[in-house]
């Protein structure tokens, strides 16, 4: 009968001198090659992933399982986290703003009453130093404002302030401010937002146009607060005096 020999932990290991020389040479060569290979490898780098094209609104609504508002909030969180990927931080100026606007548009379509996409556009993505991208994203805010002026006026009013103070572009600021004055007619729109176009026109030296805008606001029936009426009436008097003083 064949007997099996079990390993005895007390048995002494055989000395390395019993290993054939060719085997030792191969082991040494393999170890040297592995060390050299690891040393020659470049340091691992993290590669930024570009924003993909957003799915269609129908596909997103189907994926939302009947709760598009939750889907909109999740997508907004995902979009804002995109600039911080594992091992890499992407400056906003390096983002594809066309894709950013497409994702913001999809999120607004999922949740039209949501305010965060336009807040992010006007205050976060518009904070870049790249003027072309800044103008692009503010124009996105302007276009989407008309879908719900009484709810979206804060972001266009902020866009007007950015255009006035950061771009030094009074005509663009006036375009945004005038849209707020003429289209945001709800009771929740504050005086300063409605009156911004009058102030910008005055700064531009367009005294006649500023007079017309102030008169329009007074006659529209939307100005009910007494202090705002006083402001506009005083502004009208001031504008008329300045026009009379500048007349030949």
Give a brief rundown of this model.
The protein is mainly alpha-helical and 248 residues long.
Q: What features would you describe in this structure?
A:
Helix content is 63%, strand content 2%. By secondary structure, the chain is an all-alpha fold. The protein has a two-stranded antiparallel sheet. The protein is elongated and about 110 Å long. The protein starts with 20 loop residues before the first helix and ends with a helix.
Number of strands: 2
Major sheet: arrangement of strands = 1-2
Strand content: under 5%
What form results from the Cα inertia axes? elongated
Q: What structural class should be given to the helix and strand makeup? A: mainly alpha
**Uncertain residue ranges:** 43-48, 85-89
Order of helices and strands: HHHEEHHHHHHHH
Q: What is the averaged pLDDT score?
A: 81
Task: State the helicity in percent bands.
Answer: 55-70%
Query: Count of DSSP helices?
Result: 11
Major sheet characteristics: 2 strands, antiparallel
Amino-to-carboxy terminus distance: 131 Å
């Amino acid at each position: 009968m064949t007997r099996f020999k079990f390993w005895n932990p007390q048995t002494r290991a055989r000395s390395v001198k019993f290993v054939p020389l060719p085997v030792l040479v191969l082991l040494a060569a393999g170890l040297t090659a592995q060390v050299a290979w690891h040393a020659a490898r470049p340091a691992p780098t993290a590669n930024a992933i570009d924003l993909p094209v957003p799915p269609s609104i129908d596909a997103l609504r189907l994926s939302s399982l009947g709760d598009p508002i939750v889907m909109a909030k999740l997508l907004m969180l995902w979009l804002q986290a995109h600039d911080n990927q594992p091992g890499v931080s992407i400056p906003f100026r390096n983002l594809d703003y066309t894709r950013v606007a497409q994702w913001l548009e999809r999120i607004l379509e999922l949740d039209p009453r949501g305010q965060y996409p336009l807040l992010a556009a006007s205050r976060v993505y518009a904070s870049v130093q790249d003027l072309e991208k800044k103008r692009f994203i503010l124009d996105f805010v302007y276009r989407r404002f008309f879908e719900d002026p009484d709810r979206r006026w804060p972001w266009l009013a902020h866009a007007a302030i950015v255009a006035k103070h950061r771009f030094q572009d009074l005509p663009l600021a006036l375009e945004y401010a005038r849209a707020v004055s003429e289209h945001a007619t709800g009771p929740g729109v504050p005086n300063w937002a409605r009156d911004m176009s009058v102030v910008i026109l005055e700064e531009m030296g367009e005294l006649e146009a500023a007079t017309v805008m102030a008169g329009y606001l007074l006659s529209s029936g939307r100005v009910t607060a007494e202090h705002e009426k006083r402001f506009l009436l005083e502004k009208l008097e001031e504008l008329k005096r300045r026009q009379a003083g500048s007349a030949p």
